[in-house]
Amino acid sequence: MTTGISDRKKMAAPASMRSAGSRIVRAGFIPLVDASVLIAASEFGFAKREGITLDLAKDTSWANVRDRLAFRMFDVAHMLSPMPVASMLGLGSNPSPTIAPFALNRGGNAITVSTRLYQRMQETGGLSGDDGALANAHALAGVIAEMKAKGEPLPRFGVTYPFSSHNYEFRYWLAAGGIDPDTDTRLVVVPPPMTSDALAAGAIDGFCVGAPWNMVASERGVGRIVAAKQDLWPSAPEKVVGMRPDWAESNPETVSRLIVALDAAASWCDRPENRDALSEVLADQRYVGAPVDIIRRVLTGEFTIDPQGHQRIIEDYFVFHAEQANYPKPSQALWIYSQMVRWGQIAPSKAAEKLAASAYRPDLYRTALGFKDAVDDFGAEGVAENDRFIDGFAFDPASIETYVERFPVRSRAASSASDET
User: Fold this and answer.
1) Which residue segments constitute the domains of the chain, with CATH numbers given?
2) What is the pTM of this model?
3) Averaged pLDDT for residues 311-321
């Protein structure tokens, strides 16, 4: 693993950053482990050191976070990586221009199905219990074919937001197994803290969500974890810090000071010796409010994947800082855009590509940190041996429509758009 940004040569934060007086920055967040960097920046003094009072506000849904940022109730927000892209494209309810100058982490998501559905997947697909994510998807395809043949209701799966990594990753996993998410399943929005309860109540048959809620479901005896984010695409961006472009333009020094503080906090969160302290803080009801033991284990990638206590260890399940995890790479914004095209959320166009790429702002990141490492902002994704997509496809940002056309499973709207170009 390469060293984190704090270990590389970079410009120290200018002295004026720390002497210009304290600036209050109000930040919204959802109770998830991937809010760790924001929480650590506030709790362990990284923001204060840069002259910032980070006022954290816990929220209940991504729609609330989006709206409160747009209505200037928040200055910045813990956001799903696709949310700024969707906002710049004018998608969804109440879209408001949003940019991301800092990525908070990689990893942290998983896909969980109910114990009842998993048992049926075992019976139909001959699963042994040690199967990989792709084998699990094929087994689910067999179950769904059986359900359709018998006239049974299609399975209902929860995602956290229409423009979310969870939605696109769940769809990617389903499609890799030959399942059409729009015709073979029903996808519904469920806030992250409610997913385990919804699964227990039978309101949904599975979900894709961030930690710790997958392990909460398995520890409760109601769910089986069948895939993790690393199985789908290890480098996929997860959460980002979102802000309004006008706020960033009006407060350039505060933005730089905040990025410096978050960079230091991210480096701290990555160190194994700090996991106990981080887990204790996250377990507080002000923040994630889940059992400290579960949080500690998900930070180390030690998973209980089913009610029988079977274990899986996922190396680097959470990456907060290493391997340029905080760099807001435009090619990754364009991959998100490609999935919006794939699933019919937007028609492809060069103008839309430009807007999508503009959501991620590496220029602000570089300015704040004096970052000089070479990064190809528009390089191909999924080409490195240890960074493949589950279906083996690679993403070239220069050929997005060709990339989308390669998928045998995509929305009819995307197929029509491709046919017309």
Assistant:
1) 5-105+237-300+316-369 (3.40.190.10), 109-235+302-313 (3.40.190.10)
2) 0.92
3) 92
